[in-house]
Amino acid sequence: MKLSVVILNYNVRYFLELCLQSVQAALKHIPSEIIVIDNHSMDDSCTMIKAKFPKITLIENKDNIGFSKGNNQMLQVAQGEYVCILNPDIVVAENTFQNLLQFSEAKSKHLGIVGCRLIDGAGRFLPESKRNFPKVSVAFRKLIGKSKSYYANQVDEFTNAEVEVLPGALMFLKRSLYEDLKGFDENFFMYGEDIDLSYRAKQLGYKNYYLGTSTVIHFKGESTIKNRTQSKRFYHAMKLFYKKHFKLNFFIGALVNTITSLAPYIPKFSSPTRRNDKKIIFLKPCSSPQWLEKKNLPAINSIEELPKNIYYDVVFDLNSTDFHFVINQISSIKNKFITYKFLPKKCNYFVGSDFSMRRGEVIHFDKFESRAYF
Fold first, then answer.
1. How far is CA 145 from the centre of its chain?
2. Domain count of the chain?
3. Is 119 found in the same domain as 26?
4. Under 8 Å between Cβ of 194 and 183
5. Can you say how many angstroms the Cα of residue 199 is from the centroid of all Cα atoms in its chain?
6. Residues 330 and 201 in one domain
């Protein structure tokens, strides 16, 4: 078997279904398997998987055991030569895994971890797609709002290049390397484990690569409520990383403690407010359900047809278009008045996320009329 795609899920049933549809489409011509590890979701994620994706290997945990420990369960079951660790709020294109495989096999000598160009649900590039190791000085500058050296801005977002850190949202590597590294360090419950794994791979002489020519959607943070608790977990993970990998003198140790203790309490910029006055419009081709057709909802042939001063939610009907087209569209269209929703195949809901700093939205058909879209 060539590839095992491993998805750790926690309470994101609707984003997970969209993710699985895209992954299945991308694995169509690759000897592969999909493994979903569920960290005791309280929604009907597992019920949905059993009903709609019966061939997927599903591991149901009785507790939320965290990101690292959850993903490490793949070591017991994954059979692929390569593994791809994937968040459940990712949407891949039909050629994503083929691109990753071709690139990885061309760079097989000292191949470490490979990642992709990530965009959010509105098409904006996510700079955490490629990062530098967070040395103490870098972390301090990020804390005060100067994040230039935290992200690998020396590498163009559309370039394929060696970088230091790849995000845990999508990490592609040989299974043998994951086993040699003994997987994620389970001392990291959430956050920091991707930095630690990237660092340990580099320490062993492997090269990590960013694949800027391959783009995927990362709605980002659907499993996590963005609050002070989340911020504390992030900076606690950074503290673990520094203590594990760097010898800290008294002064640097005190600085690390100060940064990780105070950072969660520093006011952050508030995330934008979701607008409820957007007009909804379908992008052709579409094969919308009958009840939607009866409402005579508008459809357009091209997003460029839309005016530049009216807010729209553009719906991609995945019953009649492919993921590669969708990703190219939202990545290339630059119109701040447009946001996007996605209608998965044979589903009765739209899903999408307007901003990476807040959780996304699921709109069920039976509640559709109550929305201020018209």
1. 23
2. 3
3. yes
4. no
5. 20
6. no
